[in-house]
Design goal:
Number of strands: 14
CATH superfamily of the largest domain: Isopropylmalate Dehydrogenase
CATH topology of the largest domain: Isopropylmalate Dehydrogenase
Number of helices: 12
Helix content: 40-55%
Order of helices and strands: EHEHHEHEHEEEHEHEHEHEEHHEEH
Radius of gyration: 21 Å
CATH class of the largest domain: Alpha Beta
Largest sheet: 10 strands, mixed
Bound molecules: nicotinamide-adenine-dinucleotide
Number of domains: 2
Length: 371
């Protein structure tokens, strides 16, 4: 059993606080029934940090986060902070953490739970049993590479531009994460770019091919153009296991894949950095995909399952506790199968519960599964 693994808990704002409080009950359950102990610290981030300290992330919280093995994050943001300067907005806290910890690998699973198969806009036979992983490069490409900007032109017009640049090491390190993930899943990687029209895509395909030959012979790898991948995700998503792609395509394709599953309240994510030289653990942050949902905050309406599933990813990817991760995921599936639903995933014939009610339903399933 792992113990004394350092976890930094950052609930953030709005429903982040509520879903994290629910998550703590799952953590307490694991401590009590599975002797699973974490060395946990809690900090402020986003609007709550701005309210207390005038900044969305203090140096101290950043240092504590960097020193931890994993960050469990809720959500940040709120309309009361909309008028703040860009550097003080709640979301800056999140972006600073990602950047300072060089969290370059963004993992977004798209899983369709049996009980929610009819929540998808796609037909049951297309999405039933879906379980794929979109791996998006998070620190390079169009959102960061230079030159980028808006220039005034001599003719009085303006020109906005971004650069989609990737270097060999940037492609190799995300490629390695893809192979590692595939080894823990169904052994298949689809590398996605647009090498038909982009130089960065040509290099991406070449480097992935070489990496596959050198380090991934146990993995089945194919290549696909990003536009075709978007079509295939909607036509036949179950053909995929791990999709690895750049920052821009990953942003679009992960949102597309997410919607196959039906609800924002169900979507977990992980952002990983390079493994630490001493511990071998990657720097990592785990967070639900959804935001702080100000429209439902403070009303016991938030679905906590994306938070629980993010925590399960933390168990699996940061601490190698697959058994406990499986338990949490099975308990989530069980709670849904029992007919309990928060408002966002409510369906005819089901029983509507709040955040607390859903947490209790998951804990009851964990009790059952542990028997
Ligand atoms: P949102 O994800 O907060 O909410 C979108 C819609 O989905 C809302 O109607 C909300 O009620 C619903 N929803 C979201 N999560 C839910 C859950 N767990 N259970 C039930 N319903 C849920 O996105 P938004 O409204 O565009 O943004 C609100 C704030 O959150 C903004 O300040 C935005 O910048 C911020 N945001 C933060 C993150 C993050 O912290 N990672 C991500 C996205 C948005």
């Amino acid at each position: 059993m792992a113990s004394n693994r350092k976890v930094m808990v950052l609930p953030g704002d709005g429903i982040g606080v509520e879903v994290m409080a629910a998550n703590m009950k799952v953590i307490d359950w694991l401590a009590k029934h599975k002797s699973l102990d974490f060395d946990m610290s809690e900090g402020l981030v986003g609007g709550t940090s701005y309210d207390a300290h005038g900044t969305p992330l203090t140096d101290e919280t950043l240092a504590d986060s960097v020193a931890s093995d994993a960050i469990l994050f809720g959500a940040v943001g709120g309309p009361q902070y909309d008028a703040l300067d860009f550097s003080l907005k709640p979301e800056r806290g999140l972006l600073t953490l990602r950047k300072e910890m060089d969290l370059f690998a963004n993992l977004r699973p798209a899983i369709v739970f049996d009980a929610l198969v009819d929540s998808s806009t796609l037909k049951r036979e297309v999405v039933e049993g879906l379980n794929i992983m979109i791996l998006r490069e998070l620190c390079g490409g169009s959102y960061f590479a230079e030159p980028r900007g808006i220039d005034d032109q001599a003719d009085g017009t303006r020109k906005g531009y971004d650069t989609n640049a990737y270097s060999t090491p940037e492609i190799e390190r995300i490629g390695r994460v893809a192979f590692d993930l595939a080894r823990k899943r169904n052994g298949k990687v689809t590398s996605v770019e647009k090498s038909n029209v982009m130089y960065s895509g040509i290099l991406w395909r070449e480097v992935m091919t070489e990496l596959h030959q050198a380090e991934g012979s146990d993995i089945e790898m194919g290549h696909m153009y990003a536009d075709n991948c978007a079509m295939q995700l909607v036509r036949n998503p179950r053909q995929f296991d791990v999709i690895v792609t750049d920052n821009l395509f990953g942003d679009l394709l992960s949102d597309c894949a997410a919607m196959l599953t039906g609800s924002l309240g169900m979507l977990p994510s992980a952002s990983l950095g390079l493994p630490d030289a001493e511990t071998g653990l990657p720097k990592a942050m785990y967070e639900p995909v959804h935001g702080s949902a100000p429209d439902i905050a403070g009303q016991d309406l938030a679905n906590p399952l994306a938070q629980f599933l993010s925590f399960a990813m933390m168990l699996r990817y940061s601490f190698g506790q697959s058994e406990e991760a499986d338990l949490v995921e099975a308990a989530v599936a069980g709670a849904l199968a029992s007919g309990k639903r928060t408002g966002d995933i409510m369906a005819p014939g089901c029983e509507q519960v709040g955040t607390e009610g859903m947490a209790q339903a998951v804990l009851a399933e964990m009790d059952k599964l542990a028997r």
